[in-house]
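User: For my dataset I need records formatted as: sequence, then structure tokens, nothing else. Please produce one.
Assistant:
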Amino acid sequence: MPMVSIKWRPLSCPAVTKNVIISVNANGALQHWHVTSGKLLNTIFDEFNQLLTVDYNNDGTKFVAAGNDCVVRVYDEKVLKCSRALSTTLEGGGSGAPGHSNRVFCCKFDPDNSNHIISGGWDNTIMIWDVRTPGGPVRSIFEPYICGDSIDIHDGYLLTGSHKADKQL
């Protein structure tokens, strides 16, 4: 299946193996690759979800992935599983807590605060999550129609691209 997003693991990551990328595929595979040798190191497979985006935090100890099922998942890089120390799934709740209602095409760790994750997709909403706070996003911004890797954060500013005829930024 198509590989739809890749990211380099930061060199500051405490892992022994360097030159590693993480990728997500449309078939639900999240894979770690050793670039130097070309070898596949690990696969986490979610057969009922089409993964569309992945990102590392600054020190490479956590990564986040999201896709078709509208759930943003935070993983621990050391054990390659959803992080137990954090809210591992960022989603809306049955009690009416807000969350994404359509595919998530982009998620990013805030480079200034690795507890914050920004996500967006086809539901015209940017969600700002704090992994320490259960029960939904801490903020949301309505309007950007995210259809790819079009969220970035720099110097305290959030920039999004939108797949619309006007107001693309």
